[in-house]
Amino acid sequence: MKALVTGGAGFIGSNLVNALVERGDDVRVLDNFSTGSRANLEGLDVDVVEGELRSYERVHAAVRGIEVVYHLGALGSVPRSVQDPLTSNGVNVEGTLNVLLAARDEGVRRVIFSSSTSVYGTARELPTPESTPLDPISPYGVTKLAAERYCISFARVYDSFETVVLRYFNVFGPRQDPEGTYAAVIPKWIAALLKHTPVVINGDGETSRDFCFVADVVQANLLAADATIADADPRVCNIGSGQRTTLNQLFEIIQGVLRRQNPSLQEQKPIYQAFRPGDVRHSVADITKAQRVLGYAPWYSLEQGLETVVSKLKAVETARSASRSHSTG
User: Fold this and answer.
1) Closest Cα to residue 7, out of 136, 158, 171?
2) 198 preceded by a cis bond (ω within 30 of 0)
3) Which of 8, 107, 113, 6 is nearest to 59 (CA)?
4) Which residues span the domain enclosing 64?
5) What is the CATH number of the domain that holds 93?
6) What is the pLDDT of residues 117-168, one digit of tens each?
7) How open is the CA angle 24-52-16, to the nearest 5 degrees?
8) Within-domain flag for 187
9) pTM over 0.90
10) Burial of residue 148, with CB atoms counted within 10 A of its CB: 0-12 exposed, 13-18 middle, 19 or more buried
11) Is the residue at 48 inside a domain?
12) Cβ neighbours of 248 (radius 10 Å)
């Protein structure tokens, strides 16, 4: 299959690109490398188009000759959207519209759009099904909802144009950046614990999330590309683990995994600070529909995923240490 992955140099995108290449697909990546890394694509036989989602011409060039588009390119992070809603809107809404227009103009069979649990806002029903009223709190959630509606609209008004929306819950895994202002909680905490620097929890630690390992998100994308979905069944599916974990529990699990792999690691206690603006209190996916429509079933528990992440981090650090020793030897 000829596939395009927007945001293919990013954390989730590069994991998907790797899986597509491994199964023999002809893969193209569109990325501006503002948050993605070229290192994530090293050794992969892919065609790279460097450019902005906000440029229709660049997006159109990337889509030409493609059968399926996996649209993961976005400007993520709730806090970043609170600081700069205008740029988040430009990339996430206008960028998605460019992808849809280019895909329509080039006769693409299907677009798989990566959305977010943030579209639900403070959901009253837990686990949260797709039928839950949508009430995003943050500008990021608003941009994802607007992009979703464009995807659904295009599938309704243009003949033979198919879209599937996947609402990710909290994704974690290898290649997730632990650095920077908007780093996700799991890699940030792992890095802090390994360096024995303070781990900060926003709020009282009883905020809960559905943490989904990236391999399960990749699985969902591959299934969504080929699933037969009836027109009467809205093409929106939650993708998560279906399990809820508080931040306090997450801290204990991460520290437990790290200390099992490194018994000499000193035990720490977290530091609690104020809640962040735009954050929801609780979030967990009802994945019944994804199981029924896509055949999706999570392969990894939170702890299994964390064991994999920590093992890969240790392998990377060992390789870096060996390289430094070689260069100074």
Assistant:
1) 171
2) no
3) 6
4) 2-169+213-240+285-299
5) 3.40.50.720
6) 999 998 889 999 999 999 999 999 999 999 999 999 999 999 889 999 999 9
7) 25
8) no
9) yes
10) buried
11) yes
12) 16
Instruction: Tokens for 13, please give them.
Output: 């995108």
How sure is the predictor about 319, in pLDDT bands with cuts at 50, 70 and 90?
Answer: low
Give yes or no: 140 in active site: yes
pLDDT at 184 over 90: no
**H/E element holding 307?**
helix 302-328
Pairing of strands 208-209, 245-246: antiparallel
Residue 325: per-residue pLDDT: 58
The Cα–Cα gap between 105 and 101 comes to: 6
Q: How far apart are CA 233 and CA 261, in angstroms?
A: 45
Alpha-carbon dihedral sign for residues 113, 119, 125, 130: negative
Catalytic residue among 70, 140, 150, 168: 140
What are the pLDDT digits (tens) for 232-244? 456 899 999 999 9
Q: Does a structural domain hold residue 138?
A: yes
Q: Take residue 182 and report the two structure tokens written for it.
A: 């908007």
Give the start-end residues of each E strand in 230-319.
Answer: 236-239, 245-246, 271-273
Q: How long, in residues, is the chain?
A: 329
Token couple for 303: 């702890």
Tokens of 272: 């609690």
Distances (CA, A) of 137 to 133, 134, 224: 13, 10, 28
Share of residues in the chain with pLDDT > 90 (%): 80
